[in-house]
Structure formats: structure tokens, C-alpha cells
């Protein structure tokens, strides 16, 4: 129970369904903020108090479990390491993978509980090989993307009571009818451990800042930076380039080279990506087919992005395609080619992002993007 309206209503529905429910709030910081500011931040003392009030109203036991050390190691430290390596990570994915459905689930099952219920908008459907994770009935609120890291074992111990609810407005109305004080509480946004939203400033305090060169695609130096971690693929503003482009058009960050500490910029059209590939993949249950054979699917690279049709396969990493962003021990990767007959190229793809694969409404699995091939380069190779 995060202290928000979704988890409060999820708990209420679990109680109403006849389950033996215990409310748990996760303390993810040893020094939590005392109050929230609108939708900024989460896991504050105020959130814990809101969760406790909801549990008291529902008449269920309530506990605060301190997972702050695990959260720091598995989410915050990983976030810092990924940025230092030139990646753009998604800490919410790591939190679901390592904390909510790993550390929390392991502790819950060890204590004899059957499942962890959350307020995520997603649906579990029995399949031929076990539970399948599907989109929520309302795609506008669907959160299956951030659950794409879950495995078959974890899905077998998950419960998502809100998956069939078509809108957040109905959840708020239900909360008000139940007398829950969080009925109109704003949703949390931004990274929970950077509540002011200033990711670049926060990283400056946690990642070594080493000045380096900003290059164009020819390798010519067109500017300098005071820390590559402060840039992300697709960025246009704040580059402060000393040399304008020959055509006078704006330039965008195309890639970050962590080993040489260089930032590469170029024209907007070079951000158009027709192939992505990466490792650290996992399947959300048995696929039901051999993923080494090409298969059609949809791919989604951000929580609120539209899925695009694609052709994917699991393949060995060729040495000539290995980049400095590949992990040294990685031998295979998921390769995804965008179906350009039915979709536009992806734009602004950053290594470190999570790509989630769907077959229809079902979440098939996910991988971390290690390389993104521009449209022109992919056409030349093929």
C-alpha cells in the first residue's frame, strides 16, 4: 500500500473478495520526506500515514517493511551506474523487478502468503503454459509495460484487482464511496528518489563529472561538455555548440560514448530508428514458440508510448555489432526490426531503455536496449 488511491482500492477489493489481506507499506528511504508537494515524490511519511489510515478503515493489519537498503543497492545504485555507463535507465522497472516483485514477494511467500496484490492496471489471464500478463482493459491507464520484467514464477504470485476497471475516475469515485481519504490524492510522478524532478542536478552529485568533447558525425569537435551524464539521446536544448551545422539546422544528441567520454550530435532525421537490440531479456511466462525464429509482435519503448508492429527474434551477438554498451558476458540479444510498412520509425531511442514485446494484448517479455540502428544504416546493411 503506497498511500495512493489505486493501492487502497486494490486492498478494499481484495478484502471484499474474501481474501485474508494484510497491508504493507514499503519504506524505501532511511530519510523519507515529511510531506509531499502535489504529485512530486512518493514513499514519504505522509504516504505511510495515508496507507495506515486506509488499512484501518478496511480493518486489516498494517505493517511498514524497511527495504531501504535493498532499494538503494538494486535501484538507486543501479541508476547511478547506468548513467555513468552512458545509458538512460528506467528505475521503475528495476523497482518492480528487484523490490516489489522480488524482495517483497520473497518475504511474503516465506511468511505463508499466496500473492502480492498491487494497484497496477494490468490483467492476468490463465494460459496454456501458466498465467499470462495482459494489458488492462483501459489502454489509456494500462501499466503492463512497467510489469514487463516479471517472470512466470512471479506472475503465479501476483494479483491485480484493478485490471478490469476502465478508468481512473471510476477508481476515485469508488474510493470516495468507500470513505477512503485518498480518493482525490494526486498521482505520483517523476523518479521517487528525485522528487524535485532535477535528474541532471541530482546526478551531478552522484556521478563523476569529467569534461569532454561534443562531436558531429564526421568526428569534428563542435563543442564541449562538463559531464556526459547530463545528456540524453534526442536532446536538443542546452547543447551550447560552438560551431553551427553547415545547413544551419538544429542538432540533437545521437549517442553518448562512455569510454571516450564523448557526446555525438547530428540532424534530427538520424534519430529515426528502424532496429533495436539488447540483452538482459526475460520472458513473462512461456512464449509458446521458439523465440529464435522470427515472430511478429508489437514493441513499446516507454511507459506511455504507442506500441509499434515489428519482427523480432533472439539471436547471437555478432562481434561486428557489439558496442561498448553491451555487457561483456552477453552472448545473445533480442533483435527487433520495426515494420515500416505499418509504423513510423522509433525516435530518440536511448540505450538503457526497456523494450517490452507484446503479442496482441499479452506481454511476451522485455529486454534492455544496447544498440539502436538508424533507419539509413539499417537500409544500407539490408
From TrEMBL:
UniProt protein name: tRNA-specific 2-thiouridylase MnmA
Its biological purpose: Catalyzes the 2-thiolation of uridine at the wobble position (U34) of tRNA, leading to the formation of s(2)U34.
Taxonomic superkingdom: Bacteria
Region (Interaction with tRNA): 141-143
Residue ranges occupied by any tRNA-specific 2-thiouridylase MnmA-like C-terminal domain in the UniProt entry: 280-365
One biological process term in Gene Ontology: tRNA wobble position uridine thiolation
Subcellular location: Cytoplasm
Keyword check for Transmembrane helix: no
Location of the active site: 95 (nucleophile), 192 (cysteine persulfide intermediate)
Catalytic activity: S-sulfanyl-L-cysteinyl-[protein] + uridine(34) in tRNA + AH2 + ATP = 2-thiouridine(34) in tRNA + L-cysteinyl-[protein] + A + AMP + diphosphate + H(+)
Organism: Leucobacter chromiiresistens
Family as reported in the entry's similarity comment: Belongs to the MnmA/TRMU family.
S-S bonds: 95-192
PANTHER family: MITOCHONDRIAL TRNA-SPECIFIC 2-THIOURIDYLASE 1 (PTHR11933:SF5), TRNA 5-METHYLAMINOMETHYL-2-THIOURIDYLATE -METHYLTRANSFERASE (PTHR11933)
Residues annotated for ATP binding in this entry: 26, 119
A GO-annotated cellular component: cytoplasm
Domain tRNA-specific 2-thiouridylase MnmA-like central intervals: 202-266
Site note Interaction with tRNA, residues: 120, 353
Protein EC: 2.8.1.13
Key words of the record: ATP-binding, Cytoplasm, Disulfide bond, Nucleotide-binding, RNA-binding, Transferase, tRNA processing, tRNA-binding
Molecular function GO labels: ATP binding; tRNA binding; tRNA-uridine 2-sulfurtransferase activity
Amino acid at each position: 500500500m503506497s498511500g495512493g488511491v489505486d493501492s487502497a482500492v486494490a486492498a478494499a477489493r481484495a478484502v471484499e473478495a474474501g481474501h485474508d489481506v494484510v497491508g504493507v507499506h514499503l519504506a524505501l528511504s532511511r530519510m523519507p520526506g515529511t510531506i509531499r508537494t502535489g504529485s512530486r515524490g512518493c514513499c514519504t511519511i505522509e504516504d505511510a500515514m495515508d496507507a495506515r489510515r486506509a488499512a484501518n478503515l478496511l480493518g486489516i493489519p498494517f505493517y511498514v517493511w524497511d527495504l531501504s537498503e535493498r532499494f538503494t543497492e538494486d535501484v538507486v545504485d543501479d541508476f547511478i551506474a547506468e548513467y555513468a555507463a552512458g545509458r538512460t535507465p528506467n528505475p521503475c522497472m528495476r523497482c518492480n523487478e528487484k523490490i516489489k516483485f522480488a524482495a517483497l514477494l520473497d518475504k511474503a511467500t516465506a511468511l505463508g502468503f499466496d500473492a502480492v496484490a498491487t494497484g497496477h492496471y494490468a490483467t492476468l489471464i490463465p494460459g496454456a503454459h501458466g498465467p499470462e500478463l495482459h494489458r488492462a482493459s483501459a489502454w489509456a491507464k494500462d501499466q503492463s509495460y512497467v510489469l514487463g520484467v516479471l517472470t512466470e514464477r512471479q506472475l503465479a504470485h501476483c494479483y491485480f484487482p484493478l485490471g478490469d476497471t476502465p478508468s481512473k475516475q471510476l477508481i476515485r469515485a469508488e474510493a470516495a464511496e468507500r470513505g477512503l481519504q485518498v480518493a482525490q490524492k494526486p498521482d505520483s510522478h517523476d523518479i521517487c528518489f528525485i522528487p524535485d524532478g532535477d535528474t541532471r542536478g541530482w546526478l551531478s552529485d552522484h556521478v563523476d563529472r569529467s569534461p569532454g568533447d561534443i562531436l558531429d558525425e564526421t568526428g569534428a569537435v563542435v563543442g564541449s561538455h562538463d559531464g556526459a551524464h547530463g545528456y540524453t539521446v534526442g536532446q536538443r536544448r542546452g547543447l551550447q555548440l560552438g560551431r553551427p551545422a553547415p545547413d544551419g539546422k538544429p542538432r540533437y544528441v545521437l549517442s553518448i560514448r562512455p569510454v571516450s567520454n564523448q557526446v555525438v550530435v547530428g540532424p534530427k532525421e538520424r534519430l529515426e530508428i528502424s532496429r533495436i537490440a539488447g540483452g538482459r531479456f526475460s520472458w513473462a511466462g512461456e512464449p509458446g514458440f521458439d523465440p529464435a525464429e522470427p515472430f511478429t509482435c508489437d514493441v513499446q519503448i516507454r511507459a506511455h508510448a504507442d506500441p509499434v508492429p515489428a519482427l523480432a527474434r533472439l539471436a547471437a551477438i555478432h562481434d561486428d555489432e557489439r558496442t561498448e554498451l553491451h555487457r561483456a558476458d552477453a552472448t545473445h540479444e533480442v533483435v527487433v526490426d520495426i515494420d515500416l510498412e505499418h509504423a513510423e520509425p522509433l525516435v530518440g531511442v536511448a540505450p538503457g531503455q526497456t523494450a517490452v514485446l507484446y503479442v496482441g494484448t499479452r506481454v511476451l517479455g522485455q529486454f534492455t536496449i544496447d544498440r539502436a540502428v538508424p533507419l539509413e544504416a539499417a537500409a544500407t546493411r539490408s
